[in-house]
């Protein structure tokens, strides 16, 4: 399948939400909106006890925002709407009453790192190097920053935000708290994700929901915070610096 999609597959009370885009799983606004809605719906579905977030394809979990859409932004309002796409997914994950397990099979960049950081328990393969490349094009990881800082700490977040050219290995991300485990192969990762998710389904749902609220304590203002952050990125993307940089991606 080469067309972009978001789909959900329920197996043994686990809701596997999978997204895909042929451009290295970079996410345009319509796919982000569908992803946010699918997470919200899964959170309300009594047939699901635990959610797994994954992407299609082998070597890239998510390449972040769609550059194709980025290039076509010509006013601040459109820019804010575009960057709100990732904000809406992060907030859907934050508010979801169920544990979300991340299955990170390959490289993840920018907004993709934000998605990984917004899961409650994130498992990866050794191929899951991470990079925050936003500074390279004259913007910054403003929208995903709070999620990454919450999971990895300000020091690690600022390191990868400033060193915008470098991929950091999965093992480094594990040491900094983004990943709980790193596996040698995608097959091992998938087996471990399935086992973990199905085991969590044997626990008390009310206890898991109460624990999730504790884990996300102090984030009640994120609807406003991430909207403000989206506004910053929406303004910066109009700068001459960024417009010139994006021309190279046409």
Name the features.
single chain, alpha/beta, 6-stranded mixed beta sheet
Overview of the molecule:
- This protein has helices spanning 29-44, 67-71, 76-95, 111-118, 145-152, 154-162, 170-175, 186-200, 205-215, 222-236, 240-247; strands at residues 5-11, 14-20, 50-55, 60-62, 100-104, 107-109, 121-125, 130-131, 181-183.
- With 250 residues, the chain is of the alpha/beta class.
- Helix 4 (111-118) packs across helix 5 (145-152) and helix 5 packs across helix 6.
In short:
By secondary structure, this protein is of the alpha/beta class. It is built from eleven helices and nine strands.
Mean pLDDT: 96
Indicate the proportion of strand residues: 15-25%
Number of helices: 11
Give the terminus-to-terminus CA distance. Answer: 24 Å
Kindly state the percentage of residues in helix.
Answer: 40-55%
**Contiguous uncertain segments of 5+ residues:** none
Q: Output the strand order for the largest sheet.
A: 1-2-3-5-7-9
The biggest sheet amounts to: 6 strands, mixed
Structural class estimated from helices and strands: alpha/beta
